[in-house]
Write a structure and sequence with these properties.
- By secondary structure, the protein is an alpha/beta fold.
- Helix 5 packs across helix 6.
- Strands 2-4-3-6-8-7 form a six-stranded mixed sheet, with helices on both faces. It has a two-stranded antiparallel ribbon with strand order 1-5.
- It is globular and about 50 Å long.
- Helix content is 40%, strand content 14%.
């Protein structure tokens, strides 16, 4: 039954114009040796529908002009449109606990900048499948940068880094958890805060808590 479902999905993508290629194309057998090589791998990726509408890949970057060798805090936003409005506020909070912009690296779970509406997803569906394909790139990025802690913005990012859980995100938010790659601190998605400003205080508290892990 599972095999039939997979074949039906493959036929669906073929009908949309996708080409099927060897299983090693786009998926890495080993981790990228550096960030430049990782970016090149992402630019060739065609593992999800976002590849069809990709305008460019979204590279992570340090937030200051004189980056440290390794970030103290690596911030992971869900997608390229989600963190822009709150980045400056986040940097201010981090500065108050002794972390400069040069020690903060911002990246995204979804690595493609597309003209689609991320809120509505791909063809009206959510981005869960796409996020799962991008996860390995994110893990490679974290492994290359070796941050002291990862600030995961939202439930989707946290789930990809630490796995699904039966616990509500509300009960996890504000804690610190160890994944295979790093310490992970989940907090609210900036897009959620934009629609519910009352959560801004919780966000600030969560970011301030990172001081004890730096």
């Amino acid at each position: 039954m599972v095999k039939d479902e997979i074949l039906n999905e493959l036929y669906f993508y073929k009908a949309l114009g996708y080409r099927f290629i060897g299983g090693d194309a786009g998926r890495r057998g080993t981790s990228a040796p550096n960030l430049a090589a990782l970016g090149a791998q992402i630019s060739r990726c065609n593992l999800c529908p976002l590849a069809k509408t990709r305008q460019k890949i979204v590279r992570g970057a340090f937030c200051g002009s004189a980056p440290a060798p390794n970030p103290k805090v690596l911030v992971v936003a869900p997608n390229p449109s989600s963190a822009n409005g709150w980045l400056n506020e986040t940097l201010k909070i981090l500065a108050n606990i002794g972390v400069s912009a040069n020690e903060v690296y911002l990246t995204h779970l979804i690595k493609c900048d597309s003209n689609l509406n991320y809120k509505n997803g791909v063809n009206g569906e959510n981005l869960t499948f796409c996020a799962a394909q991008c996860k390995e790139y994110l893990l490679d990025e974290i492994a290359l940068l070796t941050p002291k802690i990862v600030l995961a913005l939202g439930a989707k990012v946290f789930a990809e880094l630490c796995g699904e859980t039966d616990c509500s995100f509300a009960s996890l938010r504000g804690g610190v958890f160890r994944s295979k790659s790093a310490l992970v601190a989940p907090t609210h998605d900036p897009a959620l805060i934009a629609s519910n400003p009352s959560l801004a205080a919780q966000f600030a508290q969560d970011v301030a808590k990172l001081k004890g892990y730096l």
